Amino acid sequence: MNMNANRVSSHLEQIEWIGKLADLKEAHYQQSLMLSAVIELLVEKGILSAQEIAAKAHALEAADTASASAVLP
């Protein structure tokens, strides 16, 4: 009986993880949508150009990669 209870518990944990993953995917989608809207508005209003945004993204990525490699041995 205990083995069956463990199996059920394991399946319930898997279902819980799947639900959490679905929630994270939805949150990621909503954040990406909002970010895209903000970027599009900034470009449409002439506040920033697409090239400026791309350059900043590359600079941030390079800085993040550099700081990550400085932490790793």
Overall 3D shape? elongated
Helix content: over 70%
Strand content: under 5%
Number of helices: 2
User: In total, how many beta strands?
Assistant: 0
**Run of helices and strands:** HH
What number is the mean pLDDT? Answer: 90
Largest sheet: none
Q: Tally the structural domains.
A: 1
Using only C-alpha atoms, the radius of gyration works out to: 21 Å
The separation of the N and C termini measures 49 Å
Broad structural category? mainly alpha
Low-pLDDT runs: none
Question: What does the model show?
Answer:
The model has no long low-confidence stretch (mean pLDDT 90). 89% of the residues lie in helices and 0% in strands. The chain has helices at 2-44, 50-71. The protein contains two helices and no strands. The protein is an all-alpha fold and 73 residues long. It has one domain (2-71). This is Nitrile hydratase subunit beta.
Question: Could you provide a short overview of the structure?
Answer:
With 73 residues, the chain is mainly α. Helix content is 89%, strand content 0%. The protein is elongated and about 65 Å long.
